[in-house]
């Protein structure tokens, strides 16, 4: 029997709402998963991608992740993972760094046997590159086989990757497929194979109202998939429909009914009542102990459908417009560098010139070809909330199909600082002090579900995944050709 934790979409480093507390929440959730793995005595932790929210995680996020991985290593619990679209870089991956430190293993074409189960990995691959992809894996002699992959797979919502194609074209028969990218947990059966999303470990968007958690997967002749909840920060979701003559006092009355202490509060206003100033409600919630409050007046959105923006989501509106332009990979990279990266303003021009020149030198002319504008989900202008660099393949609140962007390599300063920290040197603090601040985009909140961290139940086969797919662009997954047997862009 093999029993593993299936987790993913941890998005460590996401400073949601520009809040340091929310940034810490994402790391805390991952640390809970690690502690559960140790206390439950599972055979491995399997991570299905998007360990980090950013391809350039800051030093504090790297060190926090290293600390958690050391906890697993000390307990002899392997950490098996693949690369998601959020963290993918054109050069070496952060996961490779952790593997070199002996704290993680990157899954790929070669089997990694745990107990009586062989695990394989399929990193995120942009939709435009999948037609030439072959699903050839090295043979194994284990009793069970599992594929770990990152993307939006059928039959779940917003799918652009055919699970049947992967299973039918693979030279290995799988008992289960463990997925990441869609933030809604779910279980389906495809070609006699169980296919499951573990969901995100923290709420990354307003659509992620249900409690967060992960899967516990056991293989012993049959496949058993169960949900385990995480104890994450409370979210209070307040919906107020104003009748004619009602206004701000009615909204405050509804907000008063909730315990707002240290909570993220989202207020949605609809109806025919008087205009409501979001700032007044947000201030009222803060006075009652809320960590963060966001107010969206849906009547503003309905009045001007051509500009779906409220006081709560101006960055989201920008992301949606950019995704509608159908920009080329190179153009998206320039946009990300100017608007959302950690590059100092004084170095933006030099950085843009360097990135464009690199693409030209590689002879990758497809990077300069315009992409089709992304098809936007019905909720895209309302609930999407991710880093300003995020634009596409989304959480039900972002676009279901996306344009590609060209990732940049890991921050060399951070890499050197991590290596120094691992060797016990004192360079880490200096490197952190020199790191640029991350301008993560503001976002909105969701949900009111306080999860019971000890509740373990059967996975819900109908998780309404259409509102919870991963909130990030279809980042181009190009890796080193010698990266331990993983799928790389050189494969096609």
From TrEMBL:
Keywords: DNA damage, DNA repair, Endonuclease, Exonuclease, Hydrolase, Manganese, Metal-binding, Nuclease. It is an enzyme of class 3 (hydrolase). Residues 371-492 are annotated as: Disordered. One of its GO terms (biological process) is double-strand break repair. Binds 2 manganese ions per subunit. Its EC number is 3.1.-.-. Belongs to the MRE11/RAD32 family. HAMAP family: Mre11. Homodimer. Forms a heterotetramer composed of two Mre11 subunits and two Rad50 subunits. This is DNA double-strand break repair protein Mre11. It comes from Halopelagius fulvigenes.
């Amino acid at each position: 029997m093999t029993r593993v934790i299936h987790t993913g979409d941890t998005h460590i480093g996401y400073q949601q709402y520009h809040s340091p507390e929310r940034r810490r929440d994402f790391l805390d959730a991952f640390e809970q998963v690690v502690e559960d793995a140790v206390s439950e005595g599972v055979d491995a932790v399997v991570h299905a991608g998007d360990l980090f929210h950013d391809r350039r995680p800051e030093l504090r996020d790297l060190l926090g992740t290293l600390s958690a991985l050391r906890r697993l290593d000390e307990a002899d619990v392997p950490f098996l993972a693949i690369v998601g679209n959020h963290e993918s870089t054109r050069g070496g991956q952060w996961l490779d760094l952790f593997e070199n430190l002996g704290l993680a293993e990157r899954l790929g074409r070669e089997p990694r046997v745990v107990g009586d189960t062989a695990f394989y990995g399929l990193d995120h691959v942009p939709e435009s590159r999948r037609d030439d992809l072959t699903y050839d894996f090295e043979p194994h002699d284990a009793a069970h086989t599992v594929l770990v992959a990152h993307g939006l797979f059928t039959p779940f919502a917003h799918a652009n990757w055919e699970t049947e194609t992967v299973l039918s074209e693979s030279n290995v028969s799988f008992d289960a497929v463990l997925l990441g990218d869609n933030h809604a947990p779910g279980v389906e059966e495809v070609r006699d194979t169980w296919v499951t999303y573990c969901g995100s470990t923290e709420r990354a968007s307003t659509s992620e109202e249900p409690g967060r958690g992960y899967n516990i997967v056991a293989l012993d002749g049959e496949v058993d998939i169960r949900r385990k909840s995480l104890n994450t920060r409370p979210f209070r979701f307040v919906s107020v429909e104003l009748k004619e003559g009602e206004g701000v006092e009615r909204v405050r009355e509804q907000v008063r009914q909730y315990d707002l202490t240290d909570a993220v509060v989202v207020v949605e206003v609809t109806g025919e009542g008087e205009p409501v100033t979001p700032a007044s409600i947000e201030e009222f919630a803060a006075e009652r102990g809320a960590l963060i409050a966001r107010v969206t007046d849906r009547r503003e959105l309905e009045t001007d459908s051509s500009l779906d923006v409220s006081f709560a989501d101006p960055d989201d509106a920008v992301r949606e417009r950019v995704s509608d332009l159908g920009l080329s990979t190179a153009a998206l990279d320039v946009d990300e560098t100017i608007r959302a990266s950690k590059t100092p303003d004084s170095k933006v021009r030099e950085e843009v010139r360097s990135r464009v020149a690199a693409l030209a030198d590689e002879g990758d002319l497809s990077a300069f070809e315009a992409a089709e504008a992304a098809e936007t989900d019905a909720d895209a202008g309302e609930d999407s909330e991710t880093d300003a660099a995020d634009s596409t393949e989304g959480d039900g609140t972002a676009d279901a199909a996306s344009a590609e962007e060209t990732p940049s390599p890991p921050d060399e300063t951070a890499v050197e600082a991590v290596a120094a920290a691992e060797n016990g040197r004192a360079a880490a603090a200096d490197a952190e002090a020199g790191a640029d601040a991350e301008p993560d985009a503001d976002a909105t909140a969701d949900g009111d579900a306080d999860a019971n961290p000890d509740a373990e139940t059967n996975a819900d086969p109908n998780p309404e995944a259409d509102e919870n797919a991963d909130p990030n662009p279809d980042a181009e997954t190009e890796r080193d050709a010698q990266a331990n047997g993983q799928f790389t862009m050189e494969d096609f």
